[in-house]
Amino acid sequence: MKKSLLMNTLVVLGFALGACASAHGMAFGPTPHPEIDPSLAISGLTLLAGSLAVLRAKRNK
Amino acid sequence: MWFRSFLARLYIFFFVVAFEYMNCYDGRGKVAGHFSLFGMTTDLYGQIPLFALVVFIGFGHSRLKNLKEEIPFGSLFFFAHLICLAVVIAFTIATQTGQSWQLIDPFGYFKCAIYLLATILLALACAPLLSWIAALRATGFLWLYSLLAGVAGWAFGTPVRLLWNATSTEQSGWMQRFTLQAVYAVAHRFTPNIVSDPSTFSIGNSLYWITIAPGCSGVEGLGLVLVFTCLWLWVYRKEIRFPQAFLLVPAALICSWLLNIFRLCVLVSIECNGGSEAFAKGFHAQFGWISFIIIALFFSLATQRLKWFRMLRSTVEVSVDPATEQAASAGESPAIRAFLIPLLVILVVASFSKLTSAYFDWLYPLRFIAAAIALYFFRSELKKLNWRFGWLGPVAGAAVFLMWIAPSWFASLSGHSDAGGSLGADLAALSPSARWAWIAFRVAAAVITVPIAEELAFRGYLARRFMSRDFDQVSFSNLTVLAICLSSIVFGMEHMKNLMDWQHLLLGTAAGLVFAAVLRWRGRIGDAVVAHAVSNLLLATWVLGTGDWAQW
């Protein structure tokens, strides 16, 4: 129980920290060479989600 | 009805709150009433509910979807919500236009209080109080984690920003400084004549001078990697060993930061040696996403394949916890490979070909070749589908084509035509044989590989996946309206040229609805593919005939 509570807290805090870092990092306005280009977000996320789904596929029977 | 369940109402509540926050409240520290923390203004009420709701919905999804009781919509609460929102909008407009009556609320506390009240009323309109209580009981302490995440997201925002924003205090900006030092240490070995200026976070030589902006210091990648890794650990927590799996998080973060250093070093080395601007721009637009995707894939593979991080099969099987057993048997249908890999191959090749140039995509033919190879590889699985088609496919394709070009046609009539970028000029600069070869591959991809790959992915997989994990068992004739709408919206998003390209979002969504309707009506993927191919063929004819390169 204590271990589970600690794990949940760590994960949620990490998520919040990552979300606010991303949100505040991307709120600085246009950068000539951004690290993460927002205009490529949709194709990037599609590629990531699709690849993860394929990697999670069960083996052929 | 699906939208009467608590989870559906929670989604509606979230999207309305997010929309109102962005469009009515006018947050982001622009208006009076935002609180000051560590010398920077910030807004309180907008961020906390949004962060908290994301965590509550995301982490409680599996338990919330078990609340199947149909709940009524509170019209009176919604009406009261609209009145409160009107007051908030009035204060926002008064602040923006400098009205004198804004002085009655100089610090914006009244506006904040009314906004909070409006949010509570909207929550009660979406679901009665008893339903909220039932949801809180069903999710245990998740409300506490969500609130904690919401407050943490808001409270961490300002101090965390000090790590990379140099404008606040002298101590801040160490992320930029550290990145600059690392880039200089590496790039100096390849380009000895470069110098760095720590006061302005700049590096370069007489040919090129670059400033490590806050957004370039690696923080965006670190944030995305942290979000992804935490979500992954939570969603697959039944299959992962703790606490050793936590070690993968800092490893992923270090990889992200190092890859950003590599990205900046390549930029500095190329530009300071008089290299190609097109390559430098293309490389830096794409490399951030490519590195994030690679890190995410390696992270997920490590948690699934490395014995030290994954739960042993025997441990999972003997467990009496149903959720654990479900997790053990979870996984996508094996058929997913034939349906998704052709489109993924196109996306991968597109990412790498755009690495080489930010302007003209001269490696476009590789997309056609790679997709054709992928389709050929899965030919035995794809032969099981019904590829026959009738008259409906071409007719639907022609209708989609007319809908697609209508906005630019009307714009050209009113003298507001889009020049279409530099594609026409880039093609004209090629030799005739290279130009026609490129055009031939572009048309072949538009008419053959892209329609097949996209129809397999969006209608063949995604629409049916919204209905069942074993999507290949769902008949095309049984597609639900919700599955068609959701897959069409994703299809529309895929056609956006940037995040604000609403025109292509709407056109793509409408095209997706037409293709899915054809598929559902006839029950054959062949009709949807032919409809898609005909619309693309007509569009290619239009582009080549009129020179309207913006359509490509």
In short:
Helix content of chain A is 64%, strand content 0%. With 61 residues, chain A is mostly helical.
Task: Write up this protein.
The complex is a heterodimer of chains A (61) and B (552). By secondary structure, chain A is mainly α. Chain A has a domain at 1-26. Chain A contains two helices and no strands. Chain A has helices at residues 2-25, 41-55. The longest helix of chain A is centred in the N-terminal third of the chain and has 24 residues, at 2-25. The N and C termini of chain A lie far apart (38 Å). Chain B is mainly alpha-helical. Chain B has three domains: 2-161; 174-329, no CATH class; 336-551, no CATH class. Helix content of chain B is 66%, strand content 3%. Chain B is built from 21 helices and five strands. In chain B, the strands form two sheets. Chain B has a three-stranded antiparallel beta sheet, covered by helices on one side. In chain B, strands 1-2 form a two-stranded antiparallel ribbon. Residues 27-42 of chain B have low confidence and may be disordered. The chains are: A mainly alpha (61), B mainly alpha (552). At the A-B interface, α1 and α2 of A face α2, α6, α8, α9 and α10 of B.
Secondary structure layout:
The complex is a heterodimer of chains A (61) and B (552).
Chain A: H1 2-25, H2 41-55
Chain B: H1 6-25, E1 35-37, E2 40-42, H2 47-64, H3 75-97, H4 109-126, H5 129-138, H6 142-161, H7 174-190, E3 195-197, E4 202-204, E5 209-211, H8 219-235, H9 248-272, H10 277-305, H11 313-317, H12 322-329, H13 336-355, H14 364-377, H15 379-382, H16 392-413, H17 423-428, H18 432-465, H19 481-494, H20 502-522, H21 525-546
Antiparallel strand pairs in B: 1-2, 3-4, 4-5
Helix pairs in contact in B: 1-2, 1-4, 2-6, 3-4, 7-9, 8-9, 8-10, 9-10, 10-13, 13-14, 13-18, 14-18, 16-20, 16-21, 18-19, 18-20, 18-21, 19-20, 20-21
